[in-house]
Design goal:
heterodimer, A: mainly beta, Folate-binding fold, 4-stranded antiparallel beta sheet, two-stranded antiparallel ribbon, 6 strands, about 15% helix, about 35% strand, B: alpha/beta, 8-stranded mixed beta sheet, 10 helices, about 25% strand
């Protein structure tokens, strides 16, 4: 079972959370300009790495807020969590 | 290949059963093949078997990074059925069930097929309406399916709690009598032995680490045993399709999740059907050894860890007790997880990819075992001819850009 550090509530049991899939997918600003393949890529294709994965979670049975998590999909280790709209601690370090 | 027969059994008994040949060989890989199949699970081995049997293509290697049948083929709950709602799925799974019905004879290997019937329970009025819609749709596709009353279910499974005191009373159900279970290891082993006897090389402990692609065309694979070239490559790697697609340079609409299962300590035989419930959410059967084999929903986060979280197990056991309160003191003996590739429409992807002569067969999600021979049959045909088999065509990768999705979420009789 995962112990997930919510940015607002601290470490809580996985049962309180729900995952929301890959993080950082940006809705195309001009959907009409996309062809079918590009739209399908936005809608359906997902990064599915065996390794570090940035994903969204919601603290559904807690503060009910969405946030970002960086988690390893083979070990389940959680390296960082950060609020929506903010830059990940990793990217801050690298000056992105 | 030594045929398995009563006569040969008697012959070998005279040597104390010490002279049986290996069921399949362990050859060194050649430098060049007509077709390479990546993945030595049931689907990959079935593909190799049908390439050799139906298309006469025997210069084939099956590359497996672990041991054959050690992935999801050996981790499922062995349930077989073909009661799917949509025409495209019904046709594919029915082909598979028909092949299963003749598979022991075809392979000269007992896969211990037991068509004991699969019952889907309904616990609400809405579910009963859904059951009659589904049963009728399935019958229109020529597949056996019938509606059961609670009394009929009680007669088939006397120990099931159908009483009025239940939180989720059983209002009825759907039955596919031709559904059932088969021994999953035997399916992999029988297919491996049959493919090997026709000249297919089964190479274990050989991981594919990359593809050799020149001007948009695959020419072979890089492996931990060195490069191997091939005219065509078929990738059948449940749980790792996304990783292999990444190596080949394209993206898939797939997320990988753990799906857990468990067995209890053995009991005397007490129920002889496969029971599924979408509402309390568990599916279970009793194995020949007496263990209860059960599964439920998948873990909802992405993972490649072949293990899941405990809340899923708690929910599964709670559902089991809702159906069988009498089992409250039963002990769990083993639990495990496998990694399943889930597509947005919960249907598989079979066919061509953006790379020429590279074919993918993936995304079987939570229900791949029942499709094993059918999947291999249509995929072998697709690889041999270079064009999708008629039954595989609706499951092409480009359905995600054309919009012709085959939405089996919930429609497949059990929701995940």
């Amino acid at each position: 079972m995962l112990l997930i550090p919510c940015p607002w509530c601290g470490a809580r049991a996985e049962k309180e959370f729900k995952p929301g899939g890959e993080a950082g997918i940006v809705r195309p600003l001009d959907p009409d300009a996309l062809d079918d393949a590009a739209w399908a890529d936005y809608l359906f294709n997902r990064a599915n790495p065996k390794g570090w994965h940035r994903e969204r979670w919601i603290h559904a049975l807690g503060c009910r807020r969405w946030f970002n998590v960086e988690r390893h999909t083979a070990t389940h280790e959680i390296r960082a969590t950060w609020p929506m709209g903010e830059t990940s601690p990793d990217d801050v370090e690298r000056g992105k | 290949m030594t045929r398995y027969s009563a006569l040969n059994l008697w012959r070998h008994s005279r040597q104390g059963h010490t002279q049986w040949p290996e069921a399949w060989g362990s050859p060194e890989p050649k430098s060049d093949y007509d077709v390479i199949i990546v993945g030595g699970g049931g689907h990959g081995l079935a593909t190799a078997h049908y390439l050799a049997k139906n298309h006469g293509i025997t210069n084939v290697a099956v590359l497996e990074k672990g041991w054959i049948g050690g992935g999801n083929t050996g981790r499922n709950t062995t349930i077989l059925r073909s009661n799917y709602l949509w025409d495209e799925s019904a046709a594919l799974y029915e082909l598979s069930l028909k092949l299963y019905e003749g598979l022991s004879k075809d392979l000269n290997y007992n896969i211990m097929l037991s068509q004991r019937g699969v019952i889907n329970l309904a616990h609400t009025e809405h579910e009963m309406r859904e059951v009659s819609r589904r049963v009728n749709a399935i019958r229109l596709n020529g597949i056996d399916s019938e509606i059961l009353t609670p009394e009929q279910i009680k007669e088939m499974v006397p120990i099931l709690n159908t009483g009025p005191g239940g939180r989720y009373p059983v209002l009825g159900g759907a039955l596919q009598r031709r559904g059932g279970v088969a021994r999953h290891d035997a399916v992999a082993w029988g297919l491996a032995r049959a493919a090997d006897s026709r000249g297919v090389d089964i190479i274990q402990n050989c991981e594919v680490t990359g593809f050799n692609i020149r001007s948009g065309q695959v020419e072979g694979v890089e492996t931990t045993l060195g490069p191997i070239s091939a005219k065509k490559v078929g990738v059948v790697v449940a749980g790792h399709a996304g990783v292999l697609a990444d190596l080949a340079g394209f993206r898939l609409p797939i997320e990988s999740h753990p799906l857990q299962a468990l067995v209890s300590e053995p009991l005397k035989p007490f129920f002889n059907v496969v029971l599924m419930s979408g509402t309390v959410h568990v599916y279970l059967s009793q194995s020949d050894r007496g263990e209860l084999v059960m599964g439920a929903g998948m873990d909802t986060y992405n993972s490649y860890a072949q293990r899941g979280s405990l809340p899923i197990i708690e929910q599964m056991l709670g559902a089991c007790l809702e159906l069988f309160p009498v089992l409250s003191r039963l002990k769990v003996m083993r639990m495990w997880g496998g990694i399943v590739d889930i597509c947005p429409d919960a249907s598989p992807i079979i066919g061509k990819t953006p790379v020429d002569n590279l074919f993918f067969n993936c995304g079987w999600g939570t229900g791949g075992f029942k499709a094993t021979p059918g999947s291999g049959y249509v995929f072998a045909d697709t690889i041999a001819k270079g064009e999708p088999h008629a039954l595989a065509a609706p499951f092409s990768l480009d359905r995600f850009s054309t919009g012709a999705l085959i939405d089996e979420h919930g429609a497949a009789a059990v929701a995940h």
